[in-house]
Structures are given as C-alpha cells and as structure tokens.
Amino acid sequence: MLWRHELRLFLRQRVAWPALLLTLFLAIASVVAGLAEVERQRAAIARIPALQAEDVGAIAKFVAREPDAGYAAYYTPHATWDAPSPLAFAAIGQRDVAPYILRIRALGQEGQLYDSELYNAELALPGRFDWAFVLTYLAPLILIVLLHDLVSSERESGRLALLMAMNGGRWRFWARRIGLRLGLVYAALIVPLAAGALYAAAPLWSTAQIAGHALGYCLIWTALAAGIGAIGLSSVANAASLAAGWLALTLILPALANLAINAAIPARQGIELTLAQREVIHAGWDKPKQATMAAFFRSHPEWRDTKPVGLGFHWKWYYAFQQLGDQSVADQSRAYRAALMRRDSWARRIGWVLPAVGVQTALHRIARTDLTAQLAYQDRIRRYHTQLRRFYYPYIFNDIAFTDADFGKAPRWR
Fold first, then answer.
1. What SS3 class is residue 401?
2. CA triplet 223, 19, 125: central angle to 5 degrees?
3. Would you say 91 and 360 are in contact if contact means Cβ atoms under 8 Å apart?
4. How far apart are CA 252 and CA 124, in angstroms?
5. Closest by alpha carbon to 123, among 257, 300, 266?
6. Considering its fold, how many domains does the chain have in total?
7. What is the pLDDT of residues 229-266, one digit of tens each?
C-alpha cells in the first residue's frame, strides 16, 4: 500500500514521466542501434566466403599461366575475421575502432596487422552510442534530475517538518522514496537490454553480470545524489553540485587519467612498426642474396639444404627478406603489445576509483569487445599467418609447381 501510494505521488510530478520515458527511449534506441551494428558486421563477415572464392578463382587463372607458388603466395589474400559476441550490441568497445575483418597474404605480417592502426581502448571517453554509453553518461543525469530535490523541495515548500512528524521511521520513508526512483530508472534501462539479449541469444549469466554492474553503477550515483541532498543545500545548489560531480567523474577525471596513463606508459604506434618493418624489407633488395639467405637459414634451418638462389630474382629470396623484416621488429612488436596491456591494466585499476571507467571496462570485458579480445584476434591471425607460410614454403623452396588444385589445399581461417 505504501509503495503504491508513493508511486502515485511520484508519477504526479511534472518531471517523472518525461524522465522515465526519455530513459526508456534512449535505452531502446541504443539497443536497436547496437543490434543493427552487430548485424551489419555479421552480414559483412557472411559475404567473405563468396568474395574469397571469387578472388582465388581469378588468381588461379593467372597463376595457371606460370604455375609458380611465389605468385600464388604473393597475390592470394586470405580473409580473417572476428565475429561479434552475442552481447557486443550492448558495448561495442574496440570493434568501433579496430578491424574485425583483415585480409592477409604470406608476406610480412607486422605491416599487415597494423595497416589499420590498433588504438588503445578509450575506456574513459565517450564513444559510440550504445547501451553502455546510455548507462555510463546519461543514466546518472536522469538520477540527478529525479533525486537532487528529494529533501530540499520538501524543506522549501515547508512540508519537511510535517513529513518527519508523521513518519516515525524516517529512514524507511526516505529509503522508499529513493528506492522507487532508482528502481524505475533501472527498469527502464534493463528491460530493453534484456529484450536485446533475448533477441541476440546472449548467455543468461553474462547478461546477468552486465545487469549487476549496471545496478551497482546506478546505486553509486543514487548514493551520491542522496548524500548531497542530505547536506541541507537548496535544490539549485544540489543540482549544480551533482552536475559538477557528473562532469568531473564521467568526463574530466577519466580524460586526465587516460592522458596520465599514456604519458607514463609510452607506446610506439603500430604504424611505426609497419614503417620500420618496410624499411628492412625494402633494404633487402640491395643486400647480397647470400647474406639474406644465410640470415634466414639461421631461423629456418630446415630449408638450408635447398637449391641455392642464383643471380636473378627468386621467390625464396624474396620471402626470406620478408620474414627477416618481421623478425627485425619482433622485439618492438612485443614491447608495443606489452605497453598496450599495461595501459589497459591501469585503466582497470582506475576503474575502482572512477565509476564511469570501471563500468565501461567491465561491460566491454563481458561483451568481449575490449583490448584483450582484440589482441586475441591478432594472436589468431599470427598463428594463421604461420600456417600459410608453412603451406607455401615447401612449394617455393623446393621449386614445386603450384597448380589449380593446390589453391584448395591452403589453410582456411577457423
């Protein structure tokens, strides 16, 4: 009875329906936008096999005129892709800035990995409009609107003393009022998320984890609003204080933390690795072939006893200095990756202090759209690239003709 009465009183307020409907609309719009983006990515991935077969067919006709494996390895692109998880619609994360489809050839892999630069997750800054964005940046504003004058409006209207006299259990009274507003806002956020998760066939436990993090985040802002309101300031002062807190906690401090992390943990951009690798590869044209092959055989002794290259061009020499280009930047590549992981680790730690960073970090991890997921995709590409080289090298180094049937034997992306 008391809850029903409190609900009627709340819904009579001019701001109640607009705030709740706006929250519901934004949550629905973000879920629909996220699902549409995921469907677009899946549709792009679904087109890959047909396009791949078309490309390989055209290259096979060209190679048939001169069945040399060097041409096949050089011209044939092999598609790789990273399918979105069922919950990616809720938190797009790295999938908005990093490639989820990458076509690679049996050439130097480092340059191909970083042709589209991999950026560190901007966990502290606004990104694509998705459900995580609505929760992180807009839900606190709705809670501020509904809670900033909860006590002060009663004081300013002269009803506070009467309310306190009529309600002996004042803590239960205010808890009921606060809990009602929190529950309605949370429901407006969660119902669209649950509907989207059901549509996407997302795992129940992962969806529940996201819902749990969302509840914790809303509770933090509710507690902050209730705490400011209990100080005794005017409604305007409460609103101004909470707005300043929102600006600091969701935008300014996370941005400063991000700048501090990047300054404390410098990382060479991936494009710099690409340029360094290409310099080594281009320099390989001017180096003596025997020196190049000797350096290659030190890391690949299994090809040492193959027929030596002559004075003219030979594909085995070409792929040897492609491999040496990768080896020349291997340490830089590992350092770059380690720096990205350290930055991400510190962003997670800052999330324990800054709720906006913490909730986005958690949501991206659960949705498998964070930096860890992107680096895992890169690791799969590296392993696949190794398989491609091992497939082509026997043909190239043993001078075995590459026929139309051999194209179908190439490793396929899994």
1. strand
2. 65
3. yes
4. 9
5. 257
6. 1
7. 888 778 889 889 999 999 999 999 999 999 999 899 88
